[in-house]
Automatic annotation (TrEMBL):
The lineage of its organism: Bacteria, Pseudomonadati, Pseudomonadota, Alphaproteobacteria, Rhodospirillales. It is an enzyme of class 3 (hydrolase). Belongs to the GTP-binding elongation factor family. LepA subfamily. Belongs to the TRAFAC class translation factor GTPase superfamily. Classic translation factor GTPase family. LepA subfamily. GO terms for biological process: positive regulation of translation. Required for accurate and efficient protein synthesis under certain stress conditions. May act as a fidelity factor of the translation reaction, by catalyzing a one-codon backward translocation of tRNAs on improperly translocated ribosomes. Back-translocation proceeds from a post-translocation (POST) complex to a pre-translocation (PRE) complex, thus giving elongation factor G a second chance to translocate the tRNAs correctly. Binds to ribosomes in a GTP-dependent manner. It comes from Pararhodospirillum oryzae. Its EC number is 3.6.5.n1. This is Elongation factor 4. GTP binds at residues 16-21, 134-137.
Length: 598
């Protein structure tokens, strides 16, 4: 079977280097979309994504391109990949569906941390890679210097690279020519039993579950009975089709092609990403190599501000999970916050996105507890268990030892800021593995405990480098560590949602910092409030909030009544986000801000 007219490719880039702009241009050049239909970012369908400028869901677009050099019409399948470190697993599975990649590098910025992370994944996937230097319209563009950097840092030959402006369209036609002449076509046999890789799936409220597949062998048709090889489930194919980027139904999808299948599946949870779909009547002998399942690495508690919203929160989480199988949740109770859920995320950005969607799309007011990583507990009786919530920490006397997860982090930073960046890594218990230079930029590779970066590492890195440092990490391994749980007592009552786990060497410093911060975050009451940090029964830090002297509205008496009303309304609105602990009210902001480090 002749697949020589097909090219499957991904665009990989550091955030903001112009991936979406280039994708839009390619779509436009291939005539799929009328100019007037072009939205800002065609591939980003969710509003929230558009706002953040981050592509969350991997999607694919089929383009028809007639090459002026040989007169042939090619089928190009463009796979969109997310750029952020939290979604690295989505990048790897998008790449598994393609034979080649366009590596887009901003010619005014050069190679950044996600450029490296993505290109290494593409190399692992066996891709042919075409370097594309973007933004050459900018006066600050230095394509020659950046080419040299790509050769030095990544080791890719750049003699055939293409210099373009995705914004103005300059030389984008050369990208299309490079795609058809330099990337290999897919391999596959139309006569073989069906093997289709399940790349992604999502829930659409009108259409139900949609799966994105890459057909490796054979053909999938409407009316076929499909078996998912890992789960064994069998479904009848209702529709198959492609994205242009609009959804268009087709008769079939054949070996080498990508597209969607709809087949009466009820929930995304029933679709195991990386599974192989085959024909029930004529099944393939073996499944395709799948993907590693994504494992949540950061957990936090989500509690409704208004306790009567618990059921609404449960419904909303179930709906979100339909579209995002990498997000996990389980019911949880907190003495301080009542009934809620413990939720697991791929990283901090993923956590923020889910929280924001819950608040915006489902109109819920939430209290979020501080994020925590997953620790391993080895008990004296030989049992190992995972600790997702610091509040569940057992009696330390029963713990033989604990382990915490480490990551391997790559940081790219201009020389001028290197000193501060190295100091930050050391302060966060980092171990330097490598330090190299390319031009005036340094690349530092560190091993760091994940619990030292989940909070504000990225924010700190950006602020000490004035935004110039870029950062990427991958999970490394678990290592034994001297960890302790620090409890926080407000007015002598432990607030379980504020407890956290830290390395013993940092416990006292962190405890002191949090007490000081809570002192500012908790409003004064009519009585004195002691705030304490403790390890077991031993208090390691203490602050006191002085008693309030006057009623806030007192000075308005006799004065302007509307002003007084406004003040009371403001207080009421503020209360919505407060929680009562014994006699003390703690504002929602305290739960996250208190643990933020400086
Ligand atoms: P994410 O979706 O966040 O991963 O970013 P991206 O890599 O898709 O980048 P995007 O296409 O959103 O471009 C980032 C910014 O660079 C936008 O403001 C674009 O308008 C701008 N941009 C993209 N290509 C060019 C170019 O060739 N020249 C200039 N001057 N600006 C460009």
């Amino acid at each position: 079977s002749d697949l020589s007219h097909i090219r499957n490719f991904a665009i990989i880039a550091h955030i903001d280097h112009g991936k979406s702009t280039l994708a839009d241009r390619l779509i436009q050049l291939c005539g799929n979309v009328e100019d007037r239909d072009m939205k800002e970012q065609l591939l980003d369908s969710m509003d929230l994504e558009r706002e953040r400028g981050i592509t969350i869901k991997a999607q694919t677009v089929r383009l028809n391109y007639t090459s002026p050099s040989d007169g042939r019409t090619y089928q190009l399948n463009l796979m969109d990949t997310p750029g952020h470190v939290d979604f690295a697993y989505e990048v790897s599975r998008s790449l598994a569906a393609c034979e080649g990649s366009l590596l887009v590098v901003d010619a005014s910025q050069g190679v950044e941390a996600q450029t490296l992370a993505n290109v290494y994944q593409a190399i692992d996937a066996g891709h042919e890679i075409i370097p594309v230097l973007n933004k050459i319209d900018l006066p600050a563009a230095e394509p020659e210097r950046v080419k040299q950097q790509i050769e030095d840092v990544i080791g890719l030959d750049t003699s055939d690279s293409v210099g373009i402006s995705a914004k103005t369209g300059l030389h984008v036609d050369q990208v299309l020519e490079a795609l058809v002449h330099r990337l290999p076509p897919p391999k596959g046999n139309l006569e073989a039993p069906l093997q289709a890789l399940l790349v992604d799936s999502w829930y659409d409220s009108y259409l139900g579950v949609i799966t994105l597949v890459r057909v490796r062998e054979g053909v999938v048709r409407k009316g076929m009975r499909l078996r998912m090889m890992a789960t064994g489930a069998v479904h009848l194919v209702d529709k198959v089709g492609i994205f242009t980027p609009k959804m268009v139904e087709t008769d079939s999808l054949s070996a080498g092609e990508m597209g969607f299948i709809m087949s009466g599946i009820k929930s995304v949870a029933d679709c195991q990403i990386g599974d192989t779909l085959t024909d029930e009547r004529n099944p393939a002998a073996t499944p395709l190599p799948g993907f590693k399942p994504s494992v949540p690495v950061v957990w936090c508690g989500l509690f409704p501000v208004d306790t009567s919203d618990f059921e609404a929160l449960r419904d909303s989480l179930a709906k979100l999970r339909l579209n995002d199988s990498s997000f996990e949740y389980q019911a949880d109770t907190s003495a301080a916050l009542g009934f809620g859920f413990r939720c697991g995320f791929l990283g901090l950005l993923h956590m923020e996105i889910i929280q924001e969607r819950l608040e915006r799309e489902f109109d819920l007011d939430l209290i979020t507890t501080a994020p925590s990583v997953v620790y391993r507990l080895y008990m004296t009786d030989g049992v190992m268990s995972e600790l997702h919530n610091p509040a569940d920490m057992p009696d330390p006397a029963k713990i033989d030892h604990m382990e915490e997860p480490w990551v391997k982090a790559t940081i790219m930073v201009p020389d001028d800021y290197l000193g501060q960046v190295l100091a930050l890594c050391t302060e966060r218990r980092g171990i330097q593995l490598d330090l190299t230079y390319a031009g005036n930029r340094a690349m530092a590779v560190y091993k760091l405990p994940l619990n030292e970066i989940v909070f504000d590492f990225y924010d700190r890195l950006k602020s000490i480098s004035r935004g110039y440092a870029s950062f990427d990490y991958e999970m490394s391994e678990y290592q034994e560590s001297d960890l302790v749980r620090i409890s926080i007592l407000v007015n002598a009552e432990p607030v379980d949602a504020l407890s956290f786990i830290a390395h013993r060497s940092q416990a006292e410093y962190r405890g002191r910092q949090i007490c000081a911060r809570l002192k500012d975050l908790i409003p004064r009451h009519l009585f004195k409030i002691p705030i304490q940090a403790a390890i077991g029964g031993r208090v390691i830090a203490r602050e006191t909030i002085a008693a309030m002297r006057k009623d806030v509205t007192a000075k308005c008496y006799g004065g302007d009544i509307t002003r007084k009303k406004k003040l009371l309304e403001k207080q009421k609105a503020g209360k919505k986000r407060m929680r009562q602990f014994g006699k003390v009210e703690i504002p929602q902001t305290a739960f996250i801000s208190a643990l933020r480090m400086n």
